[in-house]
Task: structure prediction
Amino acid sequence: MAAGEEALPRLLFVSLSLDVGGAERHLSSVLPGLVARGWPVSLFCMNRLGAYAPGVREQGVDVIGPPIERQPGQQGLAGRFRATVMAGSRLSTTMRRLEPSIVHFFLPEPYLIGAPIALLRRVPICLMSRRGLNLYQRNWPGAGAVERRLHPQMTAVLANSRRVVADLVAEGCAPARVGLIYNGVAIAGLEPGMGREATRASLGLAPDDLVAIVVANLIPYKGHADILHALAGELPNLPPNLKVVCIGRDEGARAGLEDLRARLGLDGRVHFLGVRNDVPALLAAADMSILASHEEGFSNAVIEAMAAGLPMVVSDVGGNAEAILDGETGLVVPPKSPAELGVAIRRLASDELMRRRFGAAARARARAEFSLSACIDRYDALYRGLLAGRTLAEMGLAAP
Result:
């Protein structure tokens, strides 16, 4: 902050955790960037602190955890209810203590629980970010109805893809109050070929293997089973040196996927590596990337692969086709279609010139459209603009 400038007011973010995941990685990158721009920033985690919390704290973000940490699959219904009630109580106390001028909710549960608390506390500016399609409402009875009541009381609601914008408008949000901010990644940390040979050697991969990487937690809707079926369907036509490495936390699907891999005869082709903290190095060691999810908002994994210069095969869900331009930076296929997915994988795996052309175009597009610095700039402009009473359109952040 320059000499003579008035101090900026506090921003309070509310999410589930700083564990490994798309929203978590997004916040762990954006919040320190806002601190660097002069904002006092606090983050309240409703479930648990998570793996990224220590590093985010070191960068000046005030990270606040719940009274009881909820680990995935550990607590029964009564335990989850108790933990949620106690987290809501601490969040209310936190708002009273910090007196934030802006509260920004990420993900459905923090929004459903935290927004009513913020409204009761009369926080001047309340925001919600939707980071995926609203398919979760099918499994949460009443969630959609509650969100429709909350949306009009938010100062603005934000999406990270045009598909998510469409959901919000369909839910009754006034289009003028719906904003669009794409995710961003640190381009400089994703250099093509960086440490390629050493990384491959550490994984037991040969220098001449053709490596496809899948970065997605092992959740059924991420489409790993579709990838296995796609590979099996095209197996006679695929390059014999094609290997697929899957990076991501097991959310209960790994055992079933490993069994499917064995039944389809893909044991030597597909490797599940679990959670890794060296994703940039793994991307640099790969030749192409695949994301076959059934639902997305706007995937960090896609733009990270683009920034690493990787051509991609992606399913046409969420913002995937907004990032990957079909036939220019990669190939886009319908979701839940292993046959079409297999054809696209075979096309890309069999054509080195196509991979090089798409990869170079993908990296250039990531630099131009999806850099982390540009993303942080947009959040910075959003908060400053709202405090000054400007509209999303005046800030250049209104959804198209």
Remarks:
- The chain has a mean pLDDT of 92.
- The longest strand covers residues 125-130.
